[in-house]
Design brief:
The protein has 24 helices and 20 strands. Helix 6 links the parallel strand 7 and strand 8. The N and C termini lie far apart (about 55 Å). It comes from Bosea lathyri.
């Protein structure tokens, strides 16, 4: 990040010439930026165009850091990850029309993940329906689950901004604020900036709290499941205490991976990434209590991971999420941490008595064997290809343990959470609420800026990485400490492994091998092709020298190897 000669923050050293007497101070665009600065906006990621330039320039002038992205979708993914990891008011900005359509996939991901994010979208002048840039931006935004807002007039602009920020923060929503160009250029009337109103978490129903405590205390094999809501509420420690009190095992959803990294009684991720022995423990649970988890078909393996006679309890701060994925026996509205504290207190008063749970020697033996089970695969490595599981095991030992892992979507996506450890939930970023590929690099950049003290490790497939390649240069320009691992099988492997065995031609999902290491070197990053464990020597040297800059591992993996989790998913899918 450099300061350019007019004081605007930018991601490169380009100088911007300004015409005399063209200062935007006093116009609505500047007032919008002033309001956001007063509300402690942390950073803005964007791609500037003629309709959003006023606000982006003003934000930089006021000292809000501006990161110029190469593509709008990546800009939103960066902002999404930064917001998730930092907990601060985070902005993104895109041009009208095509700028917004370029960004819409990442906006859908943020909206589905309930990321508190404000997207500042330029818009054509009010009534200018003949503009090439004109689309119904509100309808587009609404269609992907985000909240459409807009500047209504010069007089209402500041209050429109404050209201949008309140919606984003208080309701944990992704808000897209459309800013008509003519309003941004209008003179701004003097307006006081109202402070954001923050509400404390709602108190859970005391009767339901007592009932949940009773059921947990009476259970023989309780399981406590933590989702992303538990991470947001900082509920990890209290959930560990609650589990110890009621003799329960612990699990997380894929998005909450790492929350129980140091808990010996954790089965890890519940869902498609569960190793067989851990999945069997989950199936034996007679009660499953989810904190900030919605029991999606991924988490429950379409219901197969939860016994038909098990009691299912869901606790969530969003009433619309209670029972939204499956029926539950008890739905309790409340913040994950606050509710867990109250359930723990109630359970302590009830006392467990002589009921035996399953924190015993037999369960401990099963849990202790998890790592051995993961390593008991038939290594498919050759001189041409490295087995992705072997690769991950080597990387886990080689890379610094204090790291953030950003996982893109794709066929490869199950290997990193199984074989690469993270120190805590803040070190894990998995943007899969929309099940899109190609958001990984933007996610990694946002996470790296939120946690610069840690090495960021991006895991991506070759197809997904190609979608976001325009911002590899951004990562290099920002001098981020980042290791990019490309699982390169020269294909969209999910389609190859799904349709090939059914007799379909797979040539439309394969392509010539891309030399990502050469591309990385062309941007100023380091890069090497890895086919065997010995090819990691250069990466080992980079780590030894402090992990400075961006290093890309172009890992050539066997295109014929189907991931276990994906094979099981297909087996279940085609069994119906």
């Amino acid at each position: 990040m450099q300061r350019i000669d007019n004081g605007i923050s930018a991601s490169n050293g380009v100088s911007i010439a300004r015409r005399p007497n063209s200062s935007p101070i006093g116009h609505v665009g500047f007032a919008v930026a002033e309001a956001l600065n007063s509300l402690n906006a942390a950073i803005c990621f964007g791609v500037s165009g003629s309709t959003n330039y006023y606000v982006c320039e003003a934000l930089g002038r006021l000292g809000v850091r501006y990161i110029a992205a190469g593509h709008e979708c990546n800009a939103i993914a960066m902002a999404d990850a930064f917001a998730r990891h930092s907990g601060r008011l985070t902005l993104a900005s895109v041009h009208a029309g095509p700028g917004l359509t370029n960004a819409i996939t990442a906006i859908a991901e943020a909206a589905k993940a309930r990321t508190p994010l404000l997207v500042l979208a330029g818009d054509v002048a009010v009534g200018d329906v003949l503009s090439n840039f004109h689309i119904d931006q509100d309808a587009l935004v609404r269609s992907v689950g985000a909240v459409p807002e807009r500047l209504g007039s010069a007089a209402s602009a500041v209050e429109d901004v404050v209201r949008s920020c309140e919606t984003a923060i208080r309701e944990r929503r992704t808000v897209v604020l459309s800013m008509p160009q003519d309003i941004l250029q209008s003179p701004a009337p003097p307006v006081a900036i109202r402070l954001l109103e923050r509400k404390p978490p709602a108190e859970p129903d005391s009767g339901l709290v007592h009932e949940v405590a009773q059921r947990l205390v009476a259970a023989k094999r309780p399981l406590i499941l933590a989702g992303r809501g538990a991470v947001i509420a900082d509920a990890g420690q209290i959930l560990g205490q609650l589990a110890a009190e009621v003799d329960a095992l612990l699990a997380t959803t894929a998005r909450a991976h790492g929350l129980f990294a140091n808990e010996p009684w954790s089965v890890g991720i519940m869902g498609g990434f569960s190793p067989p022995a851990m999945a069997e423990l989950i199936r034996q649970s007679d009660i499953v209590v989810g904190f900030g988890a919605t029991f999606t078909h991924w988490t429950t393996q379409a219901g197969r991971l939860i016994a038909s006679d098990a009691t299912v309890i869901q606790i969530d701060s969003d009433v619309s999420r209670l029972g939204c994925q499956r029926g539950v026996d008890i739905a309790l509205l409340g913040d994950a941490r606050v509710t867990a504290e109250k359930i723990l207190h109630a359970a302590q008063e009830l006392k467990r008595g002589g009921v035996k749970g399953w924190r015993n020697e037999m369960t401990a033996t099963v849990l202790a064997g998890r790592e051995g089970d993961l390593r008991s695969y038939a290594d498919t490595s050759t001189t041409e290809f490295i087995d992705p599981r072997t690769l991950c095991i080597e990387l886990d030992a080689l890379l610094p343990p204090e790291r953030t892992i950003a996982n893109d979507g794709g066929h490869f996506q199950g290997w990193p959470p199984l074989y690469l450890t993270v120190p805590d939930a803040a070190a894990w970023s998995f943007a899969m609420s929309f099940s899109s590929t190609g958001l990984g690099l933007g996610t990694a950049i946002g996470a790296a800026l939120a946690h610069p003290e840690r090495l960021t490790v991006l895991c991506a497939g070759d197809g997904g990485f190609m979608m976001s390649l325009s911002d590899l240069q951004t990562a290099v320009n920002l001098k981020l400490r980042m290791c990019i691992v490309i699982f390169n099988d020269a294909s969209y492997a999910a389609e190859v492994h799904e349709f090939g065995p059914l007799g379909y031609q797979t040539s439309i999902a394969t392509f010539p091998v891309t030399d990502f290491a050469a591309i990385a070197r062309g941007t100023g990053a380091a890069g090497t092709i890895v086919r065997t464990k010995s090819d990691l020597a250069d990466l080992r040297q980079w780590v030894g020298q402090g992990c400075n800059g961006v290093y890309l591992v172009d890992a050539r993996i066997n295109p014929d190897l189907a991931a276990d989790w994906f094979s099981e998913l297909l087996r279940q899918k085609h069994a119906h």
